[in-house]
Amino acid sequence: MRLCAVASSSSPLFRSGPFPAWTSLSSLPSPPPLPPLSSLPLVSLGNRGHRRRSEPPLSSLLPPARRVLARHDRPCSRHGALPAPRSPPTRRLDSPTVGSLPPAGLHQGSRGHAAAGAVAVQRSNLELAVSEAHTPLVYYYPAPAADGGSATEEAFFAPERLKAALAKALVPFYPLAGRLGVGEGGRLQIDCNAEDALFAVARADFAGDDVFRDYEASPEVRQMFVPFVPSGDPPCVISMFQVTFLKCGGVVLGTGIHHVIIDGVSAFHFIQTWTRVSRGLDVAAACGPPPIHDRTLLRARSPPAPALDHHPVYSNGRPRPFVTRVYSVSPKLLADVKSRCAPGVSTYCAVTAHLWRAMCVARGLAPSSETRLRVPANVRHRLRPPLPWSYLGNAVAIKDAVDRVDDAYVRSVVDYLEVVGYPGKGTPLTPPESDLWVVSWLGMPMYDADFGWGTPRFVAPAQMPGAGTANVMQCANKDEGIAVLFAMEPDYLECFHEVFYDPRC
Predict the structure, then answer these.
(1) Same domain assignment for residues 290 and 371
(2) 368 lies in the same domain as 251
(3) CA dist., res. 135 & res. 256, Å (int)
(4) Contact, 466 vs 320, CB < 8 A?
(5) Using CA atoms, how far apart are residues 8 and 503, in angstroms rounded to an integer?
(6) Residue 464 belongs to what domain range?
(7) Which of 192-201, 240-249, 306-315, 404-413 has the lowest mean pLDDT?
């Protein structure tokens, strides 16, 4: 078997379980609910700041299950039948609270960053090779301890507070309140028109432990917790958020930000800003270095001069059925894995190498077969001059050799995508059957998401993109080690589990 190390360093970017069969969505009794879905138009802010009511209401963009009731008692072809609920759930047919949310300061036609009608931001070439879909994440906040707080104390995860902070946070991150549009040559662009971000409030008839005790990312989890609108053809909503109140008193924040807009570094920068504003900081202090929106920093050279053939790195496989599991890497297992690696190996490289080996053994790859490891690498600090840390966009490139990504490599990738385009465009981002794609969130501030009621207990993708994809993440409690979310074909799971937890196999 020939191993082709496509990458070995960390990446900025961005998971079906025992939950009840019904999820009911309801308006919250306090604060007062927003108007019904059918009465909420999309708000378009142009030079005059007027509302155009000719556009469809948000309810027309949401599937009926999201507007009324999300039902999950049907078998899923990918994950099998869902487990039975622990207790009979209550079915309620109330609608969720949903609203259109332009950035604060732009409601009255303030020009600000984005209110000049249709400021278009072109996508960089690196953004041609990312999934043209929203990245769904879930943040689970357990119920606060009962401490007999005063009657005037603000409610846990008060939606009005979150909405007000979100509107302010969107000002420096104004592309997130825009729409995907089409520019010259049919290329997608970001229309920064301050139309809105989608914000929803829902109530669910199950407890957090029903989902997050043995978490498995799946389409069902995404449907329950993350708003959904079509991700492909423009115009398309760029950012969506949903606060779901659970029966146990806990809360799940679901986020869906379009991947063609930002990578993980930028996404977590935005979440940090939003949460800090919610805690009372002004936007400038909450944001820190302001987002850099200049996509020309990653444009192709003139004329383009790719030095390498990057096609094998940017190739896709066929979609396959898969299930997702969370594999814990305890400090003891991590030490054992590292002891079998070269001295000085990083945690990420050791865990990824161990994951890759276990996958190859579980799939029974022939000794003469070729397998590739694909890892996106953050290129902000690799360019000359470096990109600012606060660059808002996708600043990732796929490595095709260990420690090879430098300025020359990144410029070659950008030029290659300018000349050839993305070979996998129009097909799902799925690894070939012999390959592994790994995303690292190690070192990411994913748990720095305190809106004023404490940090989340668990953060993860709501759904994985396909078989052979993995996320390597730090646990909320760093003393507990590393968590690996891995999506794999069901037939290989038993063997993979055995090899993963016994490095001697």
Answers:
(1) no
(2) no
(3) 5
(4) yes
(5) 20
(6) 2-13+315-500
(7) 306-315
Residue 55 belongs to a domain with what CATH number?
Answer: 3.30.559.10
Greatest CA span in the chain, whole angstroms? Answer: 69
* Region of 316 on the Ramachandran plot (φ > 0 left; ψ -120 to 50 alpha; else beta): beta
**Which of left, alpha, beta for 109 (phi over 0: left; psi -120 to 50: alpha)?**
left
Q: Are residues 287 and 368 in the same domain?
A: no
The Cα–Cα gap between 297 and 306 comes to: 17
Q: Tell me the CB-side half-sphere exposure of residue 29, using CA atoms within 13 A.
A: 0
Angle, CA 105 vertex, CA 100 and CA 106 arms, to 5°: 55
pTM of the model: 0.79
- Domain identity same for 279 and 336: no
Confidence at residue 56, expressed as pLDDT on a 0 to 100 scale: 36
Gap between the Cα atoms of 487 and 14, Å rounded: 14
pLDDT in tens, 450-493: 999 999 999 999 999 999 999 999 999 988 999 999 999 999 99
**Same domain, residue pair 7 and 37:** no
| Residue 307 lies inside a defined structural domain of this protein | no
**Contacts with 325 (C-beta within 8 Å, 6 or more apart), sequence order:** 216, 485, 486, 488, 493, 497
On whether both 135 and 178 belong to a single domain, the answer is yes
Please identify every residue annotated as catalytic: 259, 450
**Structure confidence by residue, pLDDT tens digits, 199-222:** 999 999 999 999 999 999 999 999
Residue with tokens 């420096």: 172
pLDDT for the residue numbered 118: 61
Burial class (CB in 10 A: 0-12, 13-18, 19+), 381: exposed
Sequence-distant (≥ 6) Cβ neighbours of residue 40 within 8 angstroms: 34, 57, 58, 59, 98, 99, 100
How far apart are the C-alpha atoms of 131 and 373, rounded to whole Å? Answer: 18
Same domain, 341 and 249: no
Ranges of H-type helices in 340-432: 347-363, 407-419
SS3 state of residue 295: helix
Token representation of residue 253: 């924040």
372 and 406 part of one domain: yes
Q: How many domains does the chain have?
A: 2
Q: Is there a domain that residue 467 lies in?
A: yes
End position of a domain, from candidates 267, 298, 329: 298
Of 171, 137, 143, which is closest to residue 241 (Cα–Cα)? 137
Compute φ and ψ for 139, nearest 5 degrees. Answer: -120, 115
Would the pLDDT of 32 be above 90? no
